[in-house]
Amino acid sequence: MTDVTQKVTITYAGVTIGANSASYRVAGELLYDASYEVGRFETQVLVYGSTHANLASAEAALRTAFQTPRGDLVVSINSSTFLTWSQSSNTGINARPRCEDRGDGQSPLTRVYRIVVECDLPASLSGVSGRQSGSVRVRYSASRVLEATLSAVYTALTTNSATAQYAAAMSTWAAAVQSALGITAWELVDEDYSFDDVNKKLTATHRYAEVWANQSIGTLNNTSIVDPLLQIRVTITSPDDYDGAKVNRLQEVTADFSCAVNRTVTTNMSTLWTGTVRPHIISQAFAAFGSSSKAALISQSPLKEVYTNRLSASLTFLVLGGGNLLEQSWQQTTECRTGKVGCPVWSRDPLSKVVFQGPASIVQTQRWRRVSLVESGSSMGGFSAGGLSQYMPGGGSGAFNNFAGTVGTTAGKGFGTGWRVVRRPTVIGQLNYRLSKVEVEIEYTSELYVQPSAGGFVAGTASQIPAIPDPSLAPGAQLAATMPVPIPGGP
Question: I need a surface site. Which of 116, 245, 317, 378 has the fewest CB within 10 A?
Fold first, then answer.
């Protein structure tokens, strides 16, 4: 039967059917079926042999060929190529062949087999660049910030593997989707793909996040910075202060930042931190509490995750939220010693004493503390060298006044026993963000007394209650009773 001429030739995995084959001839219709993604070819083959051994060898070769995946299929009719599926040329990929003994047409030296070859077809449609399929899922957060998930299947195409085709075309499709959604800028925050073991078919998922606020100074989408998070918190405290309406405590502003750093752009996170990220955080913090505010950067703590190429940091500022008076306190204490002295006497009662009147004393201490911001041109923050005199005995209208009161029915008066002034100028902050402040503490003591004379006590002139050391505050009420308890005057 070697003289049988076949007009159809089928070659797959090294086996040729027809074309004067000594063992195989086409014995049925050629069935071809193809969609955009998958192709299928089917026919029947008559296997024959001159001997039983020859037939068994031909059957084994046919079964082996059509159990071999990813082979090349070529079908020719009258010496013209009808169909070519080539794994290496990516015209038909990942071929999945099979054959089955039909059980009919058998004779001692013949068998009939049905052969089928299915394969994936390359995504060669114009304009898709190897993308076999794709889908887009859009999600908006509660803040109306867009997040899009793009899923796609890419095939090998012409000389490109699946991964090469994906790398060449995915970003172009993503840009087209971005334009269709009307998004000014977005960034790839997550990428995931998988491909088969021969790199012919790939499935990918990209997640993009909308970029609507600058990621660095003057730049909306910084290619080094990915998926950033910036939180700015302002803490305003109002602890106890004397005349709190005039006091403005420094506000604490904390900026917490984190981001991934695209390692294909940079791995030098020190330069990225000092040259890009830190200036941007500072500018955003100033925008939060007012660009004209006076502020001190009191701490910065960048964290560089070396193996994951991530960067995070926390910056803390102290910001002036009002006037220059930062803290203020006033304290007045009165200490009374009666002067009575107990002299023990001998009696049956061990507690027996004769009490004598010794010198008594009533001492008043006034303490004033004030912390102020140092203004430009002032070395003491509102407490110039000359201005301090107004808080000292004999100073201006705001001087400390001596103690006054009544002893029995006789008016007493006071005399100053000493004063002390402590000034502590400090500077807080770092880089170019600093504040100068000064802390001033003043302490004045006075003692109440009456002036004796040969004829008895001489009435003293009662003075005003010790004034609060602030020229803008009026003096308070007069002391009364033999145990005076001064009450600070109101503003």
Answer: 245
Higher pLDDT, 351 or 169: 169
Token pair for 50:
């001159």
Instruction: Name the pLDDT band for 383 (thresholds 50, 70, 90).
Output: very low
Nearest to 59 by CA among 23, 16, 34: 23
CA distance 118 to 1: 31
CA–CA dist 350, 59 (Å, integer): 133
CA dihedral over 402, 403, 405, 408, signed as positive or negative: negative
Residue 281: closest CA among 230, 222, 211: 230
- Residue 483 has a pLDDT of 29
Residue 73: burial class (beta carbons within 10 Å; 0-12, 13-18, 19+): buried
Distances (CA, A) of 448 to 59, 128, 362, 414: 129, 100, 6, 4
DSSP reduced 3-state for 323 = coil
HSE of 385, CA atoms in CB hemisphere, 13 A: 1
Contact 225, 216 (CB under 8 A): yes
- Per-residue pLDDT tens digits for 278-301: 999 999 998 887 766 789 999 999
Residue 245 has phi, psi (to 5 degrees) of -65, -25
- Give the pLDDT of residue 59: 94
The token duo for 10 is 């089928």
Mean pLDDT to the nearest integer, 107-133: 94
CB neighbours (10 Å) of residue 10?
A: 25
Given a contact cutoff of 8 angstroms between Cβ atoms, the answer to whether 200 and 162 are in contact is yes
Q: Quick one: which of 117, 121, 105 has its CA closest to 62?
A: 117
CB 378 within 8 A of CB 384: yes
For residues 266 and 224, what is the distance between their CA atoms, to the nearest angstrom? 7
Cβ neighbour number for residue 56 with a 10 Å cutoff: 13
203 vs 375: CA distance, rounded Å? 65
